[in-house]
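[SOLVED] Need 3D model of a two-part complex

Original post:
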Amino acid sequence: MNGCLMEPTLYTVKGIAILDNDGNRIFAKYYDKNAFPTATEQRTFEKNLFNKTHRANAEIIMLDGLTCVYRSNVDLFFYVMGSSHENELILMSVLNCLYDSISQILRKNVEKRAVMESLDIVILAMDEICDNGIILDADSSSIVSRVALRTDDIPLGEQTVAQVLQSAKEQLKWSLLK
Amino acid sequence: MSSFKRDKKEEEDGGGNPFQNIEKTAVLQEARVFNENLINARKCTQILTKILYLLNQGEQLGSTEATEVFFAMTKLFQSKDVILRRMVYLGIKELSSVANDVIIVTSSLTKDMTGKEDLYRAAAIRALCSITDATMLQAIERYMKQAIVDKNPAVSSAALVSSLHMTKIAYDVIKRWVNEAQEAVNSDNVMVQYHALGVLYHIRKSDRLAVTKLVAKLTRMSLKSPYAVCLLIRIACKLLEEEDTANDSSLFDFIESCLRHKSEMVTYEAAHAIVNLRKTTSHELVPAISVLQLFCSSPKPALRFAAVRTLNQVAISHPAAVTACNLDLENLITDSNRSIATLAITTLLKTGAESSVDRLMKQIATFVSEISDEFKVVVVQAIRALALKFPRKHSVLMNFLSAMLRDEGGLEYKASIADTIITMIEDNPEAKEAGLAHLCEFIEDCEHTSLAVKILHLLGKEGPRTKQPSRYIRFIYNRVILENPTVRAAAVSAMSQFGALCPDLLENILVLLARCQMDTDDEVRDRATYYSHILKQKDQGLYESYILQPLQISIPCLERSLREYLEAPSDTPFDIKSVPLATVPTEEEKQATVQKTEGILTIGPSKPIPVSREENYTERLSTLPGIQTLGPLFKSSEIIELTESETEYVVRCVKHCYTKHMVLQFDCINTLNDVLLENVRIQLDPSEGYIILSEIPCSKLPYNELASSYVILQMPEDLPSCFGTFGAVLKFIVKDCDPTTGLPETDNGYDDEYILENLEITLGDHIQRLHKINWAAAWEAAAARGYIEMEDTYSLSSTNTLEEAVKNIVQFLGLQPQERTDIVLEGKTTHTLLLAGVFRGGIEVLVRTKLALADGITMQLTVRSPDSDIAELIISAVG
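Solution:
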């Protein structure tokens, strides 16, 4: 029983990961060099985690002595890992912040393609949420304000043909859906 | 709409993914764009993103590659694009560990950090601190202090978090920022408050008084941030745990008041803390439990999970307190999150009364097929605990387990069920017959070879001692007909056990073994031939040593000895007695492993197989000069403390016993950070008869490092004088040194000494524990083989209870208690303790002690051993 008491420290988060619907890593950060010394361990863990979670949408799971909270949307899986003695609700607040800020950044269009297109901003947001295992901020609106959303009016000349087509397609799609 | 679908498919195929199929070399090539005069921010951002993406995918950059990219990246500081600049910071952080000369960006970062652009400042601080080392920190100290108290919360947080990271490299510098951190705690921003508290606590945590003051102050001012309150609860808990007296109730009151906090995070933290505090009484537990109970019906899975997991912990220490939640827990059994359901079940099993077992088992049966193997294992473990708690319920549990055995499932799951049945059989004689019958049925249809072998072994061990041994033969022989060679071989061994122990079955067994001699597999034939030959001799002594008693030496040691023997061929045959014996795990160690597995479900990586102490030490000792001539290591003692744990020098001793020698290993730790010890040795004053052959001093003992010094002794020929008390003095040369570098300030040290506690050499040091499968048979065989028997009667004045007497005897003699005779049944006034072991040199010792309680304790001790000196020694040592 003793030892379950949590050491008072700010180092709360052991890892954050975003995986796609095949379990491949889109972006992941691990903050505990002891639990995940190299990329190989991280991969194995992610594979394991994905296999255990992609079917059952159960929000929380214990795996390899870690508490993992997760959330999925369309073709994305968001994970936040912490020690098995960690307060689950704190981890949950980090996960919610991650999801909400990405959702705001991508204008509610939370899917793999959109994340890939704005990967720079997503990486910045992750960096603003957690610094080396310490929760920097868990309020999504303040995160979004800090990563400075790009204004989307790029001069037409600087866009590639594909980008122009893409935005045209998007507009058409939305008008159809309405 | 169909075209829309097709589009979607195309997109999924990767058309829209700009990061697919990118290569490191190509991206590094692209990164040259950074050097252009006119910076295209958009393009550069994308390339930087690609680099970060590649690194994140596990791609490694070489030092030169990284340095090249790093320097190119520094050019991007010219651009004013906010996102690009922020990506550069990230790049710096990622590459700082691989690239060289990263400090050249210090001035650019310092400029950003003190500049006007708020979007840069916080991130610049964090990037800067990731490349700073202890010496450079002085230069930016002033800015950091300002940043901590900055009115922009992001900047302040960034500075606080970075300072916490840097305490690892420059604790002394960060310590000076305590006033700024103190000011930041009063900030209005919730995160700044949280980070400031974390930093403050970290700086002051070694100073108990300061922490107490800090907590006392903060508990009164009611922090805004729920995170900060959680942290404060943890700090308060730590204080409470460390406290010797329970007089300070204000801390506990604070934690309890947090149960009424408006944030769920805080209420849970407080409940969790109260539950885990060692001193919490069941009365104090009630409000915490009711909070958790409320969470049990929350719509959020995480909250339900947290609550059940905590209740599960409570169930171990205060099962009664959890019973109030039983109704809520039962509702959770059907939870869609299987982790929650399983935790609920195991909690219920722990708290349940004997009367509710039947009902619970019925409930589990309804859902057990739906859950994953991993959780089934947890359920099985809970059932095992239940079986130990309520032995009378064995039939219900056994039936349930056998039903589970028949279900589909992986090896780990089946193995855990089989293990549980085996424990039940061993612990509860009433359950034996039923359990064996279930296992027999199971091996009829078991696809796991290892499990079948294990069960066959158990049948061989337990079957012959049941009322009707013959009924098991059919099951075992069926395996010989139907299974693969490994199982067949195990079945042959099991049958021979029956042959050796049941004379009336012998003829039949011989017939069956004769058939097995026609087997297609070598191993099976060999075993059959071997056993039938021995069984035909009809000699109990042979049975005992070659069929019933398994090899007791430690297998890794045997392997090593054989390899050494093969490497240095000699004419003398290999002597199996030279291999150290396997140590029997003591009851406490077994308990500890059970405790560990029984805890909450932490499915961690499997633990390495424990090796015995002797095996560990053999490796280390083999490097000592002169050790090879002593022969194999016979026994290593437990670690003995020769100093108090809080003294300047800590010395622990391990006694290694060889056939004729004793090696004393002294592990020394120097706890003074301003001295270096050299030529550390132990001056021994051995008792008469011991000769010191050599001393191996430890040349250097720096602060806080463990080093060992050894003394090799020759033991006296005369056995009684082997025991005695040695005086010991630690001798060394002291050199003052610089506490930070550990280098000595002068070359001249002075001699000093430190008196250690006396070292006792006892009987137990010369005896290795040994486990006999069948003690009674061994006892009889000993008489038959002409062992010397000695007997004496003593009255034990120092102990008043049988338990204590048994414990003392086991400890004193260093022998292994057999057949669970070390457990004294309650209320008995007589007890028989059976012991076995091996004296150094491989001489077997069997001891029977009969204890009777009347006024004092009277003990009759009978020793059987092939060597009369040793038998006499044991008799006299006890007196």
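Edit: Chain A has a mean pLDDT of 82.
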